[in-house]
Specification:
CATH superfamily: Aldolase class I
CATH topology: TIM Barrel
Number of domains: 1
Radius of gyration: 17 Å
CATH architecture: Alpha-Beta Barrel
Helix content: 40-55%
Order of helices and strands: EHEHEHEHHEHHHEHHEHEH
Bound molecules: phosphoenolpyruvate
CATH class: Alpha Beta
Strand content: 15-25%
Shape: globular
Structural class: alpha/beta
Distance between the termini: 14 Å
Length: about 250
């Protein structure tokens, strides 16, 4: 049985004061709950250290939203896996569609980042998903297959144990338009089949596959009840403690 994982991607939101405020509301709101799922928050780089200190001794775990594929060096403006580990990160989101579309990240680069993260003992939350145009052309599985095949090239089944895949249809991110539970389940089942083909049945069965794209407290329950949906990657709704806690409760 796979444990559900709920991740909040704060994107470029929350300064230090807002970070303290949101985390204290989350900790208070969750203090009387016995969590049956894992909860990860991914604040911006400038809030990671503070967030790491605030969630110490709570069940909430820390992740970053991106990292560079090299260990160190002349890469102005970049952050390494070691730096993220150093401030308490356990996870890192890689290949998010905003990184792919706005910052031009390609599958090959994402593969290098995934390898570096795993080598550095950071767990990647590896995002894949098709655009609206690709869905309308019936290319969803082809796109997701390419993203996963290239993204996980030269990675062993042993390493996949420390990786989460997030299926995030680009047309559902930040749009208020969610994939139906059936649409999401269909792609999640396909991803599990693909992992079975690329690795082995046990790796596929154990893999956590999150859904992301306009997840809210009122649609989370149905999405999370699907057989192959093992959690959610949440954008907008994780910025308010009440709605993020609502989603955590649905899991
Ligand atoms: C995301 O950015 O990963 C995301 C799923 O955003 P939202 O929940 O706002 O659609």
């Amino acid at each position: 049985m796979r444990k559900k994982v709920i991740t909040g991607n704060w994107k470029m939101n929350n300064d230090l004061g807002e970070t303290q405020n949101l985390i204290s509301k989350l900790i208070n709101g969750l203090s009387n709950e016995t969590l049956s799922c894992d909860v990860i928050i991914c604040p911006p780089f400038t809030s990671l250290q503070e967030a790491g200190l605030l969630i110490k001794n709570t069940p909430i775990k820390l992740g970053a939203q991106n990292m560079h594929q090299e260990g160190n060096g002349a890469y102005t403006g970049e952050i390494s896996a070691g730096m993220l580990k150093n401030v308490g990160c356990e996870y890192v989101i890689l290949g998010h569609s905003e990184r792919r579309t706005i910052f031009g990240e390609k599958d090959e680069l994402i593969n290098l980042k995934i390898k570096k993260a795993l080598e550095s003992e950071l767990k990647p939350i590896f995002c894949v998903g098709e655009t609206l145009e690709e869905r309308e052309k019936d290319a969803t599985t082809k796109v997701v297959e390419r993203q996963i095949t290239v993204g996980l090239k030269n990675i062993s089944s042993d390493e996949i144990k420390n990786l989460i895949i997030a299926y995030e249809p680009v047309w559902a991110i930040g749009t208020g338009r969610t994939a139906t539970p059936e649409q999401a389940q269909e792609v999640h089942a396909y991803i599990r089949l693909l992992i079975n083909r690329l690795f082995d049945v046990q790796t596929a069965e154990n893999l956590v596959i999150q859904y992301g794209g306009s997840v809210k407290p009122d649609n989370a329950g149905e999405l999370l009840s699907q057989k192959d949906i093992d959690g959610a990657l949440v954008g907008g709704a994780c910025l308010k403690a009440d709605s993020f806690i609502g989603i955590i409760r649905s899991a």
